[in-house]
From TrEMBL:
Coiled coil: none annotated. Keywords: GTP-binding, Nucleotide-binding, Repeat, Ribosome biogenesis. It comes from Reichenbachiella agariperforans. GTP 1 binds at residues 9-16, 56-60, 119-122. CDD domains: EngA1, EngA2. This is GTPase Der. PROSITE patterns: G_ENGA. GO terms for biological process: ribosome biogenesis. Residues 3-168, 177-354 form the EngA-type G domain. It comes from the Bacteria. Transmembrane segments: none annotated. GTP 2 binds at residues 183-190, 230-234, 295-298. The keyword Nucleotide-binding applies. Belongs to the TRAFAC class TrmE-Era-EngA-EngB-Septin-like GTPase superfamily. EngA (Der) GTPase family.
Amino acid sequence: MSNILAIAGRPNVGKSTLFNRLVEQKKAIMDDESGVTRDRHYGFGQWTGKYFTVIDTGGYVMGSDDIFEEQIREQVKLALDEASVILFMVDCKDGLTDMDMDFANILRELKKPVYVVANKADNQTLDLQSAEFYGLGLESEIYPVSSASGSGTGDLLDKVVEHFQDDDLENPEEGIPRISILGRPNAGKSSFLNALLGKDRSIVTDIAGTTRDAIHTRYKLYGKDFILTDTAGIRKKSKVREDIEFYSVLRAIQSLQDSDVCVIMIDATRGFEAQDMSIIALADKYKKGIMIMVNKWDLIENKESNTAEHFRKEILEKLGNPLSYIPIIFTSVTTKQRIFQAIELAIEVYDNRTRRIPTSELNEALLPEIDRNPPPALKGKYIKIKYITQLPTRTPSFAFFCNLPQYIKEPYERFLLNKLRGYFNFQGVPVKIYFRKK
Ligand code: GDP
Ligand code: GDP
């Protein structure tokens, strides 16, 4: 079960307000298809040390009441299917409406944990009125909150995160890399999996959301053991194009949470798109290993020796400096160009992610660098970094012990991170550093 929280409810109850409160703030994602900026519909949240993905289903209900039912089925239901916990939001100011009742009936059928969130409980009177939502007949208690101010959300989240797993999801086959192939529809994910498997599998299912669980297939290729999380083959047929897009994102989120290394596959003829960026941002938040596979390289004509280099630079520019650790490989599944190297790279990223560096090695490499470039003094005080050690976390993180940890600023942190990456191979791996008092 993945850590996915969906916020559902009729329009205007305050879903996106709560969403924005729950997820870490980042700028809105560009919808490159229409050229307009639209709000984000999913993001990364954290509460009492538990991490989860939040989906705002509201962005997907746009029409009027009469097609409400249909829209629920087509779009919101997809999100609800993927969610592990649902927040059903209602509005204290409006009170209980028919549409809320309709919604409740749909949610009841899902047989998932549903929390009724009575929003806009801005004062005590409204707070008390929220009891009327017991009339929905859902099992949930009513949680009066004010998304605008944040009041009540803490109590709600305390309950919600009880359903979520700690930190990383458990890997039942510890030591064997779990690799997921993510990317937009048509990038070549299924073809890649088929090429690795060496036989064609039937990939299209007609029934929406039927094959819900990702398939984990264990492979042994050239002496390397790994597991591929296959969600690529599960595809929803739909008239509405955006459905497929949205669905692919949901699948990606789920399979991302469930793997060690994410291979983000890009169609070379389309380039790097907003959706790719948001999946990468999410993978980075979850501290997964990440690599980019630029597929269909055979379709790029008139390649010169530096075409790939240009392409790489363009992607790195879009990623920005903090994500420049992500390796990029150019492949053609059709001609089988570099497809095994892609797997090898994914396994290397896994090895980097599980690397443990002895304290002595860290100090030997980094203390002389720090001596040459010490942290700038602040308010006349000198900052002395004494030693460095890797923390026993699942993904690489390091503690720099020093006299005045609070005085170290971001540019110097970046300097240390670059040095760390320079000495040790953490290609494809988010690395975190902390400053601790000693
Ligand atoms: P959505 O359509 O369900 O996503 O709703 P929005 O988040 O867009 O909110 C609809 C309106 O309700 C906006 O004008 C919000 O400012 C307002 N709103 C959201 N939360 C609260 C709240 O806690 N109290 C009050 N008074 N207004 C709120
Ligand atoms: P998915 O939606 O990401 O699983 O994409 P598919 O594997 O279904 O591939 C979409 C289309 O791209 C199919 O017609 C594939 O034959 C084609 N395709 C996949 N990889 C390549 C490639 O490397 N080169 C070319 N020319 N076509 C490819």
